Amino acid sequence: MSDVPALRLTGIARTYAKGLPGEVRVLSGVDLEVAPGETVALTAPSGAGKSTLLHIAGLLDRPDSGRVEIGGRDAGALGERARTALRRDAIGFVYQFHHLLREFTALENVMLPLLAAGQGRRRARERAMALLDAVGLAGRAAHRPAQLSGGEAQRVAICRALANRPRILLADEPTGNLDPDTAERVFALLARLAREEGQGALIATHNMELAARMDRALRLERGRLVPAS
């Protein structure tokens, strides 16, 4: 496994309504490294900036200052086309709501990022089926999202996020929309697959019991990351 961090954030700062009376400083010099295969929990009260931090780490937003590196590549030094390619190929996202495309089957949803990256259809199908089998959904591959339970749909979303073997997996409250038993199973699966696939994983959660089972748990407090107590 590579010694290069899957994700490195250095001095990340972000302020909303900058220079206005309602200015809100959300991130104040965040530093973070996530190693390949490492799972890191991110906790914070609602509105503290977890989603902002994940969006910056995932190249969906830009910081006011600071540096984002994905697999050793400085995202800030890239043009828009290269930045988009890095986001597509090296970052996997899982959200609270699965956001599967309803007109496609589970298998097709997992295949889509592979096809978008230029993978041949046969190999994309093999990879997608292997992932669905790993999460116990091979028998549901032909089902559309409306035919899946919430837990099943979220497992498909995890497979989709891992399809391109990204360097870093980012998850924003991935079990927040599930009942406790299903959340437990999905969370355990997400952490296990990230380790087995060799991805670093940064997972935002309000559930401190689940966070405590990860390699590290950090808390976003006053715009900075501190060890979660």
UniProtKB/TrEMBL annotation:
As given in the record, the signal peptide range reads none
Please indicate if the UniProt record lists Electron transport as a keyword: no
Ranges for domain ABC transporter come to: 7-228
- Can you supply a Gene Ontology BP term from the record? protein localization to outer membrane
GO cellular component, as recorded: membrane protein complex; plasma membrane
Q: Name one GO molecular function term.
A: ATP hydrolysis activity
Alphabetized, the UniProt keywords read: ATP-binding, Cell inner membrane, Cell membrane, Lipoprotein, Membrane, Nucleotide-binding, Transport
Query: Which Pfam families did the record assign?
Result: ABC_tran (PF00005)
Q: PANTHER family, alphabetically?
A: IMPORT ATP-BINDING PROTEIN, LIPOPROTEIN-RELEASING SYSTEM ATP-BINDING PROTEIN LOLD
Similarity section? Belongs to the ABC transporter superfamily. Macrolide exporter (TC 3.A.1.122) family.
Q: What is this protein called?
A: Lipoprotein-releasing system ATP-binding protein
The organism of origin for this protein: Oceanicella actignis
